[in-house]
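Final report, Chapter 2: Outcomes

The project's central promise was a pipeline that accepts a single protein chain and returns its three-dimensional structure in a standardized token representation, suitable for archiving and comparison. That pipeline is now operational. To close this chapter, we reproduce one record exactly as it appears in the project archive, with the input sequence first and the structure output second.
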Amino acid sequence: MGRSMDIMSPTTAKRTPADDTLLVLVVDDDVDARRIYAEYLRSKGWTVSMAADGRKGIEKANDLKPDVVVLDLAMPRVDGWTVLKTLRESSWTRTIPIIVVSAVSDGRDEAFYLGCDAFLTKPCPPEVVWLQILAMFRVARTLKRHGAPMQA
């Protein structure tokens, strides 16, 4: 698969072996939402990559192997539902935590059924997204410490 030129742009980040910061992929067609979430998460010291549609989101998830994906559901080209299904079906991406942030509030149950790890309803302040990511990793550390399975 060829890499698009925007992989190395200032709005994205290529993971290196020495990089120990959390890498978050924000997939949202709303440019303002993408920028707000990205800027806030970067202000917390995290590395952020962005995708403007589902197709780019799938490509970047496969290429970058982010620590977490923040995903909108209603997008052009390839929607977030398809991204969620695709990432969960792939052995390369199925363990990446996915936080859905969407105005499609009646899709909450379906999103969990398809494999999202958290669901936040828009409008959602960036601080809430950050706190949700922190909570997810706190739970993961606790499960790991107690030897509990982290997947169904």
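Archive annotation: Residues 1-13 have pLDDT under 50 and may be disordered.
This record, like all others produced under the grant, will remain available to the consortium after the project formally closes.
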